[in-house]
């Protein structure tokens, strides 16, 4: 009898040990929440909806978008950072913006971007373009530099938020050129573009999707894109580097992140399925129609490396430019 009892106890321990593995094998058993830390309609939201629809089809479960805008993306990011690490709550992150805000708000955020969140996959990037109101007497980037330097405090520039790459691009321009310009912050690209078209501000480095329609309509003048090479959406517009500068590379990078501690098997599955989406020609075209250039799939380790590189890059830029979150 004692032998039977011992065997029963051992069997119970084995069954208990196997429960997590069995539960994990069934993942996902119910819908997944993909938090977009910005209001509907922006680039992060659009990218998130493409990922959600295709990822849901691949996993056999709905992936539901949850828009949690506010505080430059920090409210949504904090929600995911504190969520149960079970693969059912994910973040559609604007990696560049999160990286800059982590430095600008250092010591003030309720979460740690490097410790509380883990990149699953870097999806792609959106290029930026320097645009001016037609009243600005500059048809090339070099002429813009000359005008800005010759007219202190006359050139006003819009940005869509304190930690946005749109602002970082102009701050890099300001410091490297030595121009004295006036920053006019907005709550989003929409209001910034409205005032730029109306002439209330004169310049911006805006995402190509947000500026493209106005450029094609002749309401804004495109002077240079911020990518190392020219882009297909504006093939006739030179790069900043072509305009005589070196190593000017500013894009808005996006990716999916999970709470730290998410099981490795779940991370691997998510990484693989999102990677397949990025290799799908139809998905690539769908992203490109929204102004997003898809990147080659990366491993979770490579995605983490990309996040670390973004944080290091923008920490250096912020230190060099003296940018403040409240300016």
Pattern of helices and strands: HEHEHEHHEHEHEHEHEEHHEH
The CATH class of the largest domain, by name, is Alpha Beta
By secondary-structure content and strand pairing, the structural class works out as alpha/beta
**How many domains make up the 3D coordinates?**
2
| Rg computed from alpha carbons, rounded to a whole number of angstroms | 23 Å
Q: What is the overall pLDDT average?
A: 89
Task: Tell me how many strands there are.
Answer: 10
CATH superfamily of the largest domain: Bordetella uptake gene, domain 1
CATH architecture of the largest domain: 3-Layer(aba) Sandwich
Number of helical stretches of at least 4 residues: 12
Strand content: 15-25%
Q: Which fold name fills CATH's third level, the topology of the largest domain?
A: D-Maltodextrin-Binding Protein, domain 2
- Runs in which pLDDT lies below 50 for 5 or more consecutive residues are 1-24
Q: Give the N-terminus to C-terminus distance in angstroms.
A: 78 Å
Sheet with most strands: 10 strands, mixed
Q: How much helix is in the residues?
A: 40-55%
From the spread of the alpha carbons, the general shape counts as globular
Features of this protein?
alpha/beta; D-Maltodextrin-Binding Protein, domain 2; disordered N terminus; 327 residues
Task: Outline the fold blueprint.
Layout: H1 2-25, E1 32-36, H2 43-59, E2 63-67, H3 74-81, E3 89-94, H4 95-104, H5 113-116, E4 117-132, H6 141-150, E5 156-159, H7 165-177, E6 182-185, H8 189-198, E7 203-207, H9 208-216, E8 221-225, E9 251-259, H10 264-279, H11 281-289, E10 293-294, H12 300-321
Parallel strand pairs: 1-2, 1-3, 5-6, 5-7
Antiparallel strand pairs: 3-9, 4-7, 4-8, 4-9, 4-10
Helix pairs in contact: 2-10, 4-12, 7-12
